[in-house]
Design a protein that fits this description.
The complex is a heterodimer.
Chain A: H1 9-15, H2 17-21, H3 28-36, H4 40-51, H5 54-60, H6 65-68, H7 71-74, H8 81-91, E1 110-114, H9 118-127, E2 133-137, H10 146-149, H11 158-169, E3 174-176, H12 184-190, E4 195-198, E5 204-205, E6 220-222, H13 223-231, E7 241-245, H14 249-260, E8 265-269, H15 281-289, E9 293-295, E10 298-306, E11 309-322, E12 328-339, E13 342-345, E14 349-350, E15 384-386, H16 389-392, H17 397-415, E16 427-432, E17 434-436, E18 439-440, H18 459-464, H19 476-483, E19 491-495, H20 505-509, E20 515-518, H21 523-529, E21 541-543, E22 553-557, H22 566-569, E23 576-584
Parallel strand pairs in A: 1-2, 1-4, 2-3, 4-15, 6-13, 7-8, 7-13, 8-9
Antiparallel strand pairs in A: 5-14, 10-11, 11-12, 16-23, 17-18, 19-23, 20-22, 21-22
Chain B: H1 38-52, E1 60-64, E2 81-84, H2 90-100, E3 105-111, H3 112-116, H4 120-129, E4 133-139, E5 142-143, E6 149-150, H5 173-179, E7 184-189, H6 193-205, E8 209-215, H7 231-237, E9 238-240, E10 242-247, E11 262-266, E12 272-277, H8 287-299, E13 303-310, H9 317-321, H10 333-336, H11 340-347
Helix pairs in contact in B: 1-6, 2-4
The chains are: A alpha/beta, B alpha/beta.
């Protein structure tokens, strides 16, 4: 194999599994270390740089980082990354003076953002400090998009939501509430904007067109509309028996909301079995803890109406088997009637663009969705961009944020006359953490503690009021324990082949046997020849340049390295060093300097 | 030394031996030797050997004297028996322990100071008695614990870290062991586990005194240009005379050897050694020829390595003493010490 190019920022970036998995590439290990030091404000600001809404995401993120966490590969449970983020947000001091501000003079470029959800707000966050005049058009009377209307306040208190939205709006955004854009053509022709960003989300809940739908309409609700109505207090009660159709995260929010609006007997109806559920495991657990019943293998057939009123639904009880093509097919076993006073449909969301004319240069493709470039977020009409759920359908908040960052880069380029395809490169800094012979600038002592469980508000109290937050967050002792579980994957084992005397000390001391000195070969040969075979192909193996004495190579399996630094501690020549890696993930208007490894 | 505990985390694909143990179960405390010390690699090679031989930790007795080398037993098998003796006196303790309980696996770890200076006499007599043990001499040519003075194994012409040139001739432990009649004589290098581990395993399988001289560089005082015991010098001057493959008892012999290229030796415990002759006409069972051959290699300034001499049929200390089969420690007190009546009866013969 060729020697690994560790000067490429993406090599070390991939070693930081959580950061790599995060769509916005949040520097997780560093923000956890800042929390460990009690520097909550600094941790919050570091978070905000990438994910813009640490308080909101610390409660609601879908956590792509956690299944990726290295800890899963040496024991079972990942570090509670998301919950630690909330700690930083909850315990931070005033940050207003630290936030980016609009310059005193604008740059004369005007940008329109349609919809005030996380994608648009991120675009505003990135562009206002650069001098852009940003106008947001929002159909509802308040900003936040689905973060506001779809996430119930027992999961995300309004105070937390509004505080982080206001940080952006207060930079000097012109927001027009209650202003629905009905014609894109009009906006483009008469608005006088240099660029337009569409961040309208996926606002249309999917229908379930089975018999009885029209007759029972008064008691059949579309999940996301129902949640919105609850948020704006248009709805404050529900029948005693509620059926929620669907098992995504919206269904979980619906069933838990129903429980708080007076519902006694809440059933979530699933067509398939648990492994196929779309909801995050922790949301399923939370719902079940609140005594919501989840029924599997129930396929809805019709709404039953008696005397013009919904009395329940009939379902086929089915069984799933794989056919010869490997597709799952259902067989009906039985039919069942389940009584209900209300039914909530939470079976997915669609995009809808009736307000974008089809003759203004914005091409539409499959599923009647605008054609959007995956890297630049631009439509086929220069100057018109789409991001968030509006681009490719429902995703999570953290994806919308990253779309916003990328779209902001494109809008900036577009307005400055640069090609939108000219993306600023990733960079990195790499600095030794060595403080003394056996002293490092990070806590390298492995803590075998298990994941810290969350504390919850008393069940009775939280069900009594929909505004009472269910999760209490970690207290200080819990936080202190959980931060030490982080393996510091950003503290990289950096190897300098020419310094190595091949004494074997690093190979001998490595607790997880991830180092080997061996003759070079193909990747398959090397993976097989290591002290412990490197059979996780998703993780790279590092190969050094030829070692000076024997011309062998140093090979490291990145898979289970716990970044304890013992290789560097036992290295007599400092050929191994523990270097802190900091990814420079450029945002709009930020220049990155060329990749330089700063060796201390 | 490191202040952190070695992480308990382990690779999910870690190998497990016949006893259900992992390599890490054969570890001891964290090493307090200098980072990069050859002795730590010897420790790792011993751990690997114990692991691969499925040795039960409580069946091992580890003994040492004084010196950097003699700290080694602390760093492997924390459940084993251990004795850290007076400087250079480990062979006596080992002989005594072995006399009492011949069923344990004895590992003595010594250094060039411990074995070739203060304990030279002890070392020689352990060879003469053919005490059944593995005797590892971690040889770095300097007194590391007292700041790097030349030891008795320093070669003529080697330079100290300060530039001083050694003029006194070395004691070559391999040569010494051969002339004293040792039944298992090997030399290896801490930086070459592929060679060292099979030799250590063969040493455990050998009945009698298995002597392994390991060039184990002192990274702090003797790893510079001009030293003949540095990592770089040893690597460039190693002359592998014999390659050893160790096939433990119950294992299938998988490697095929061309006719005449390898000599299979059945060890006392049933395992098999394959000695592949790297040098032509080298006979590792002919003591006189071995001494002569090695003399030539050394004269060229090279370091002969490998399992250099093996006499598997030699009698060990217990055979010389005609002890009973059962370890003495297991005999009932009355049998072991039949009392003054029995002594008086015995003495009658000479009256």
């Amino acid at each position: 194999m060729q020697p690994t190019d560790t000067k490429d920022p993406q090599y070390y970036h991939k070693v930081v599994d959580c950061q790599w998995a995060c769509p916005a590439h949040t520097n997780v290990p560093e923000y956890i270390r800042l929390i460990a030091e009690g520097r909550y404000t600094d941790s919050y600001m570091l978070n905000r740089k990438s994910n813009v809404f640490p308080g909101i995401l610390g409660r609601t993120c879908d956590r792509p980082c956690e299944p990726a966490c290295r800890r899963v590969r040496v024991e079972d449970e990942p570090v509670a990354i998301c919950r630690l983020k909330r700690v930083a947000a909850d315990l931070r001091d005033e940050v207003k003076h630290l936030l980016p501000k609009a310059p005193p003079v604008t740059n004369g470029k005007k940008v329109a953002l349609i919809g005030a959800g996380p994608a648009s707000l991120t675009v505003a966050n990135d562009l206002v400090p650069l001098g852009y005049e940003v106008t947001i058009f929002e159909a509802l009377p308040k900003a936040g998009g689905l973060m506001r209307t779809n996430i119930p306040s027992f999961r995300l208190p309004v105070r937390v939501l509004e505080e982080e939205i206001d940080y952006i709006l207060d930079m000097g955004v012109d927001i027009r509430y209650g202003h629905r854009i009905d014609s894109m053509k009009e906006l483009l022709d008469d608005g006088g904007f240099d660029a337009v960003f569409v961040g309208t989300g996926a606002p249309k809940g999917k229908e379930l067109n089975i018999p009885g739908r029209a007759e029972g309409a008064a008691n059949i609700h579309i999940g996301i509309e129902w949640l919105e109505a609850i948020h704006f207090e248009h709805i404050d009660e529900v029948g005693e028996r509620v059926l929620v159709i669907g098992v995504g995260n919206t269904a979980m929010d619906c069933c838990r909301s129903a429980k708080r609006l007076g519902g006694k007997d809440i059933k979530v109806m699933a067509r398939k079995t648990r492994p196929f559920f779309k909801a995050s495991p922790w949301e399923l657990e939370d719902a079940e803890e609140e005594q919501v019943e989840i029924l599997v293998n129930h396929s809805p057939q019709r709404f039953v109406i008696e005397d013009g009123r919904l009395t329940g639904m009939t379902f086929d009880i089915v069984e799933w088997t794989e056919n010869e093509k490997g597709r799952l097919v259902s067989t009906k076993l039985d039919e069942v009637f389940i009584p209900a006073d209300d039914v909530v449909l939470a079976i997915g969301q669609d995009n809808a663009f009736p307000w974008i004319e089809r003759d203004i240069g914005i091409e539409f493709g499959e599923w009647d969705m605008p054609v959007v470039d995956r890297a630049t977020f631009m439509t086929t009409r220069p100057g018109v961009f789409v991001g968030g759920d509006a681009a490719w359908g429902p995703e999570n908040i953290i994806w919308a944020v990253e779309h916003g960052h990328q779209a902001a880069i494109s809008i900036h380029n577009h307005c400055q006359g640069l090609p939108v395809t000219e993306r600023p490169p990733y960079g990195m800094t790499l600095v030794s953490t060595k403080m003394g012979i056996h002293e490092w600038r990070y806590s390298n002592d492995y803590n075998p503690a298990n994941r810290t469980p969350m504390r919850y508000e008393d069940l009775e109290k939280r069900l009594a009021d929909i505004k009472v937050e269910a999760e209490l967050g970690y207290d200080i002792p819990q936080t202190a324990r959980e931060v030490e579980r982080c393996l510091n994957c950003d503290i990289q084992t950096d190897f300098t082949a020419k310094l190595c005397i091949e004494c074997d000390a690093c190979v001998d001391v490595c607790p997880v046997q991830c180092l080997t000195m061996t003759e070079n070969g193909t990747e398959t040969e090397l993976r097989d020849r290591l002290m412990a075979p490197a059979d996780n192909l998703e993780q790279a193996i590092y190969v050094s340049e030829d070692l000076p004495q024997t011309k062998r190579v140093m090979v490291k399996d990145e898979d289970v390295c716990v970044h304890c630094g013992l290789c560097a501690e036992r290295c007599p020549t400092a050929a191994w060093d523990m270097m802190q890696f900091d990814l420079i993930n450029p945002h709009a208007g930020q220049d990155t300097w060329s990749t330089v490894a700063a060796t201390a | 030394m490191s202040y952190i505990t070695k992480p308990v985390a382990r690779h999910k694909g870690t190998r497990i031996n016949a006893l259900g143990l992992t390599m890490r179960d054969y570890e001891g405390s964290m090493s307090t030797l200098c980072a990069g010390c050859g002795h730590d690699s010897v420790t790792a090679a011993l751990i690997q050997s114990f692991f691969e031989l499925d040795v039960e930790p409580h069946r091992v007795a580890k003994l040492s004297g004084i010196g950097c080398s003699s700290k080694t037993p602390t760093y492997f098998i924390r459940e084993a028996h251990g004795f850290n003796s007076v400087h250079g006196r480990m062979p006596s303790i080992a002989a005594g322990a072995n006399a009492a309980n011949k069923d344990l696996l004895y590992v003595g770890i010594s250094g060039d100071g411990d074995s070739l200076s203060i304990g030279l006499g002890q070392f020689c007599h352990a060879i003469r008695r053919n005490v059944n043990m593995l005797y590892v001499l971690e040889n770095n040519g300097v007194y590391g614990l007292t700041k790097g003075q030349f030891s008795a194994s320093a070669d003529v012409g080697t330079k100290s870290k300060q530039g001083e040139v050694n003029q006194q001739g070395p004691i070559d432990p391999v040569n010494l062991a051969l002339t004293l009649g040792a039944t298992f004589v090997a030399r290896s290098f801490s930086g070459d586990k592929a060679q060292l581990v099979p030799i250590l395993k063969a040493g455990f399988a050998h009945r009698g005194f298995a002597f392994v001289d390991v060039i184990s560089p002192c990274v702090t005082f003797n790893d510079h240009v001009g030293s003949t015991k540095s990592y770089a010098h040893t690597r460039t001057h190693m002359h592998e005379v014999v390659e050893t493959d160790f096939v433990p008892i119950r294992s299938e012999i998988r490697t095929a050897y061309a006719e005449g290229s390898a000599r299979a030796v059945k060890m006392h415990d049933g395992s098999t050694l394959h000695l592949r002759k790297v040098a032509e006409d080298y006979d590792p069972t002919n003591r006189v020829a071995v001494i002569e051959y090695l003399g030539g290699v050394v004269a060229r300034g090279e370091v002969p390595t490998g399992l250099l001499y093996l006499a598997e049929a030699g009698a060990d200390m217990h055979e010389f003493s005609q002890t009973v089969d059962r370890p003495l420690v297991d005999l009932p007190y009355e049998t072991l010490c039949p009392g003054s009546g029995a002594l008086a009866e015995l003495q009658k013969e000479w009256w």
